[in-house]
Amino acid sequence: MVPGRCGGGAGDRTLATVLQALVGQRVAIDLKNDSTVEGRLVAVDQRMNCRLTSARTYKRYHDDSATGEHLSAVFIKGNRIRYVEIPDYVDVAECINEQRRKRNRRNAQQQQQQQQQRAPRSRRRPMQDGGPHPAIVVRLRPDPDIVDERSTC
Question: What PANTHER family does the entry give (predicted)?
Answer without folding.
Answer: U7 SNRNA-ASSOCIATED SM-LIKE PROTEIN LSM10
